[in-house]
Amino acid sequence: MADLVNLTIDGRAVQVPPQTLVIDAAKTVGIEIPAFCYYEGLTLQAACRMCLVEVEKMPKMMTACTLPVAEGMIVRTETEQVKQARKYTLEFLLTNHPLDCPVCDKGGECELQDMVFRYGAGESRYTEEKVHTPEKQFSPVVFFDAPRCILCFRCVRICNEGLGVGALGVINRGVVSEIAPNVGDHLECDECGACIDICPVGALTSGIYRYQTRPWEMAHVGTICTHCGDGCKTTLGTRNDEIIRGNNRDRSGINGEFLCIKGRYAFDFYNHPERLQAPMLRVNGKLEEVSWARALEAVGKKFKQTAEAGGSFGVIGSNHTSNEENFYLQKFARQVLKTNNIDHHRTGDVVTLLDSLSGKTAQLATVADLYDRKAVLVLGADLALEHPLLSFQIRANYRHHQAHVYAITPGPVREDKYSVASIRVGKSGAAKVGGDLGVVPGREVGATSSGPGSAPVGGPGVVPNAEAGAHFEPVHGAGSANGSPSGFVHPHNVTAVPADYFGALESLRDKLKAEPELVVVFDDSFKGDDVRKLVEFTESLGIPVKFVCLVDYANSRGAADMGLTPELLPGYKPSGTPGLHVAEMIANDLDVVWVVGANPLKGAVKRKAGFLVVQDMFLTETAQQADVVLPAGSAYEKNGTVTNTTGEVQQLTRAINTMGAKPDLEIMGFIAREMGVAAQLGPWLPQVVFEEIRKNVRGYSLPMPVIATGGAAQTMPVNGRIPVENRPDLVRSDHNGLFASGTLGRYSKVLNSVIESRLSR
Ligand code: SF4
Ligand code: SF4
Ligand code: SF4
Ligand code: FES
Q1: 54, 310, 352, 714: which has the highest count of C-beta atoms within 10 A?
Q2: What atom of ligand 3 comes closest to residue 644's alpha carbon?
């Protein structure tokens, strides 16, 4: 144990690695040193003085949060002097604090409240009038009550260091020091709410949660965010079948505490006034509400008659529904409806990647790999907007481990701020980012100020920035309506050289070769042969490489793994005779089309199907044209599993019920019962279907205790080539930005209010 440091804390022998802080060393032997400004993972601040301890041979008390251990050090955390110091610190913190715990949102889970109970004095010696300033609203999501603030700067640091946004700072000095937005009186930021959650007191509060409830009145349910493909775990605070808040303060799951605005706040689509709560049947050309029994009877009868008559079916599944639902749906289609006409919207070319990796040493990366590996290469995607968790992980890897980050993208990205090298490729990404929200004009990307492919000016590989002066280039238009965060990037690592991704990769080859290992993250800029070429390129580097193929939605990856494609069965086995894909099913006069959680007729596409059945939460463009609409439960209203963009399986846990809606799996089961085929398909219980998945889908025989207790387990669904022709031409990512996530985002009041507030500025 030669490389460990020996010290004594409160008479107990402690051994920890060099450079460990005394506050952390104490934790290893169960000794708590109280702290406010110290926060694991953020830079040291030493602002609050709550962590003072006595150290033998040191003349004054020391802050344990900044003091590294030393051999033979003797620390005391419970002396009279230390106790007195804590009391005084708390007394100072309370001089202007309003003591409005009974109405404060943080009451019951406030660190200051807890500390005062534990370490504080029973009374204050201050009789002077307290300084009061009125509450401010920084954004639709973030409110600030200055008198409650204890100036620990956690919010400033999480925003700047964790998110890379830097929207908060401090103004004034002394007793009138105040946390404030860095631009005017409002936040130009990701609206992620991380600053609110990390605030130890009730100074920063959430526009969604404030004054709704007390923490002990809620049930706390851990489940998975239903928006993007990153698969963040979220803990939903629920009361009376309502979701009151989302956070992940227990740091469980693959995302630790991280949630973006969608995971933290955009659960509110579930109680949108337009949410469907009764089945609808087309009667005399009009959809009217009917009972579940009548709607299911109509569907069962039609499905049965069509199947018996040898009629044609099309089945369109979803990348939001669970693995169990997707597996059951394809089984229903193939075994009962006798069709391979089953598909979903494909958002990343997972199939070609899995095929290309078969039998080779390269593997699939996990979310944790993005934090641990020595180097990361981002290709195409604007991760901060489209995959916020992955962007957060890569940034944390850079901050904590000095990981080397490379970005080859059509437009500026947040990774430019700290990348070893960023290259702007000539291929325009304007269409994709312009479609971020679908409601605002997109920003032009695909060009730096000097334009794609233009000759470097100002030194080798340096692009000067005409807009922002000689030294800094805006990463994104500050506060633009498409959710772009503000921020600045040093330009010397940004080059605009090659016309395409492979030209850019070639120019990076030597740098990448010198890395000990690499994770490559790519979006739908790479599909088909380009994915194969990318894998070949990385093999030529001679270093271990892992991949992340980005997909858009909560279960996009699971939909592919579960065989929601005409050419592939669950586990990527060939289906035999491939059926029709989505566009063909819409274009053909099929007798019956069954749409589960998708909206293929958006954009004024007219239905051709003889009979159209839609399961959905809302009366989408597709549902409006249906013969039968069955109200479906959201991800927060069902049990099951989903697989994220890195192939990690996690558990969905039902948090609430919405009256009238049913989980898609249950609806499918009821249709099977109406048709008299329920026994053939088996029970429609998520745990039973998952057992079937475990037995039938390679890679899904996962350690259940890990998943059941809120962990994640990665799948490897292919071991060999995928022996069918893939359809990369069908892959199309929606490139949703921070404030959009397809249909769900459209029905989120929070996301819409943020968009509106930006448009009104
Ligand atoms: S980006 Fe997040 S942490 Fe920063 S100010 Fe906005 S809500 Fe707070
Ligand atoms: S607002 Fe909260 S997190 Fe920010 S400095 Fe004040 S107390 Fe700390
Ligand atoms: S939208 Fe994506 S990044 Fe945001 S909380 Fe949900 S899963 Fe995480
Ligand atoms: S926790 Fe050490 S000074 Fe604040």
Answers
A1: 352
A2: 7
Q: Is the CB of 652 under 6 A from ligand 2?
A: no
Least Cα distance to 729 among 435, 527, 428 occurs for 527
User: Which tokens belong to 93?
Assistant: 């913190």
Query: Beta-carbon neighbour count of residue 87 at 10 Å?
Result: 15
| For ligand 4, mutation pick of 22, 24, 39, 51 (most atoms within 8 Å of CB) | 51
Largest pairwise CA distance in the chain: 93
- Mean per-residue pLDDT for 650-666? 97
> How many angstroms separate the CA atoms of 60 and 62, rounded?
6
The residue whose CB lies within 8 Å of the most ligand 1 atoms, and thus the one to mutate among 142, 154, 165, 186, is: 165
Nearest to 141 by CA among 200, 203, 198, 210: 210
Pick the last residue of a domain from 549, 570, 587: 549
Do 338 and 358 sit in the same domain of this protein?
Answer: no
CA distance 560 to 567: 11
Q: How far apart are CA 636 and CA 620, in angstroms?
A: 19
- Cα separation of 524 and 709, whole Å? 33
Q: Is 155 in the pocket of ligand 2 (CB under 6 A)?
A: yes
Give residue-wise pLDDT tens across range 14-55. 999 999 999 999 999 999 999 999 999 999 999 999 999 999
Percent of the chain with pLDDT over 90: 81
Is the CB of residue 203 below 6 angstroms from any atom belonging to ligand 2?
A: yes
Selected residue with higher pLDDT from 470 and 645? 645
337 and 393 within one domain = no
For ligand 2, whether the C-beta of 37 sits within 6 Å is no
In this structure, are 284 and 267 located in the same domain? Answer: no
Q: What are the pLDDT digits (tens) for 394-437?
A: 999 999 999 999 999 999 999 999 999 999 997 544 333 333 32
138 and 252, same structural domain? yes
CA–centroid distance, 93 to ligand 1, in Å, is: 24
Average pLDDT, the chain: 90
Which domain range does residue 184 map to? Answer: 127-271
The verdict on residue 635 lying in a domain is: yes
